């Protein structure tokens, strides 16, 4: 009997301790630290991403820090921001690459330091991205081109205004637009410029292009800032009625332009969802629920025209609440 | 068959089982009632929180209504004081995004907005005023949330309060666009439980304000507003969610409180489980301890008793019982067992003694008997001697016979001095020598120191008789019997050696085992038995014999001085 007691006593004590210690486990779990490294903090697009990320961080009780370079071309600073996030002890980085190649080394280094990497919006050339959340940019380019085909009769003389030549998104969008236009058989690409990602440069370049090629009747601007510049140029040259401007993303200027006729179609991404899902994926990966995270998920894109912009579902997608 | 378990194990198992059963029952019962209580209190909490929100929103709507009423009145004033008032009104109420007035056709007549904004010339679509709805609901309406769409570069989400403007020819309708800052402050800060919240919907279940409106708009979250809109005010429990719905008085809005039961209940459930597990572990430890104590008190003494019984069973004679200590029951049992052991041992001794007595009596009876053949033959020899006139021989024979009988009787003593025993043996040998016509010779070699020691009477005679009858009688030549008495350590050896025909080993064994069958008299076996009965198993006969060489019978008897006769003979 004594022998049995001796052998059972440790087991009984273990049960006792386990019973007591269970109390502590699920409390006091340190909040996960997540860093969002965006391309910009000023663009409407990124503001919405950040709001979505903050909503997810609140929902999952995470500590979120947001940083972005002051210029959407400055991948060097983005690399520094990644390093800083790692130094500050971020456990996950939600990242959107300015440059598909130039940001790769910094991301690899961060991953080597044990940080979980989630890519959003723009991909980066690294195998260490645990999850990617972004739009189907090629499909979005096709959508923009298709809206122009639908909205314009006769031959389309197209001008393309692109940005960030090294970014994956612009490249894919342009390719999608080019392919759809080529397929239609009634479109010709007159000119394509690659401009700096600020509206002033885009405005100047669009103005130059439209003056040089007055026959252009379709303009496709491939992101938020080029859209703003292109719309200004169209307005400046009083081409609001006879020129179809298909642009990407929305901000107050492009929304005004869409109502005034300067812009005719906007390809809208689920920016809020991108930020939200990015941070949510970070939480799931850190909390060991990685199986529920897709390696790559596509956020919705939709096309909005003057006619449907005030439909309730489009209102909800276009205008941020609060 | 399986052995039944030990008491201590049984007790520990029983205590544990009963404890676990009771604990489980208590936990389940407690959790049931606890859950019911939690749900009830969560319902109450939810309803209370919603009431508060309804109060605040109601207040807000009420003040807003008064404000709108004042604006309605002001619209009848002249342009200058009216504009001044509305400017001040907008400053005082920053949540009012714009005030617009429309004519009967729904055309925008005038607009006052925050920061002096003016509507754009070419409004694509004015979401702040819907003429059809206004005409249908002549008393005015409150719109669902929409984007303010009449300005350039300013797109806040608003609800529009539309009212008819009385007695004013120019303006027919008034619309006040209300941004959500005030409502947000009222609703967002209200929490129910850990994750509960409130939202505002209209009668048809359209979302008016939700703390996570953008999540809803982005399609990342869904609410059951449509379903709840069909239900009246009250509190509803669906699975783990509690919905509390209340109408805001004097408005088309309803406040919905959403809270979750499981977070609180699950917390308590795990708390209970933890307590139960810890208690179970404690009880288990206690049960083990009780088992151990019981084993000390009960099982171990019982085990000792069991061992004692086994030992008693194995060797009842030499068993010495040590009382087993323990509880009263055990001690009673132990005492009873001790009594029983004593009783049995006494009984056994008595039986054995009675047996010995019986045997001794039997042997005495045998000793007292004279072999009638021997007597008849001897008397016949004496008669024959008298007839032949061998008087001297006859006299010697009669003397020898008389001596034989006298020593045989020896006043009833069992033990006699060895000297007497030797005389008895010699008397017998004399008689037999006559009868066997000097067919054998005999000789005594006696240690003088042994003569006065005692030995059983009639010890030598049966041996000598055996030597004559079986050893010498059949011989052709004259035989010899040598009788030796000598001390051997603390004992005395009486040795009868003949040089007769000897015996086979089987005959030797038979001699010590069988009663004499054909004759009366003592016999070799009885001599042996008698010595053992009197002096113990270390004493008695040993026979060495070889065919045609002779037989030597050695009698071992303790050295008993004459004055210590009583120690061996007291029972007789």
Features:
heterodimer, A: 322 residues, alpha/beta, Rossmann fold, 6-stranded parallel beta sheet, 6-stranded mixed beta sheet, 11 helices, 12 strands, B: 572 residues, alpha+beta, Heat Shock Protein 90, 6-stranded antiparallel beta sheet, 20 strands
Largest interface: which pair?
A-B, 40 and 42 residues
Q: What proportion of the residues of chain B is helical, as a percent range?
A: 40-55%
What CATH architecture label of the largest domain in chain A applies?
3-Layer(aba) Sandwich
Instruction: Please indicate the percent range of residues of chain B in DSSP E strands (runs of 2 or more).
Output: 15-25%
**Tally the helices of chain A: what do you get?**
11
Task: State the oligomer.
Answer: heterodimer
Task: Explain how this protein is built.
The complex is a heterodimer of chains A (322) and B (572). With 322 residues, chain A is of the alpha/beta class. Chain A has eleven helices and twelve strands. About 2% of the residues of chain A have low confidence. Chain B is α+β, with helices and mostly antiparallel strands. In chain B, strands 1, 2, 3, 4, 5 and 6 form a six-stranded antiparallel sheet that branches. In chain B, strands 7, 8, 9, 10, 11 and 12 form a six-stranded antiparallel sheet that branches. Chain B has a five-stranded mixed sheet with strand order 14-16-17-19-18. In chain B, a hairpin with a 3-residue loop joins strand 18 and strand 19. In chain B, helix 1 runs antiparallel to helix 7. Chain B is rod-shaped. At the A-B interface, helix 1, helix 2, helix 9, helix 10 and helix 11 of A face strand 4, helix 5 and helix 7 of B.
Outline of this structure?
By secondary structure, chain A is an alpha/beta fold. Helix content of chain A is 48%, strand content 20%.
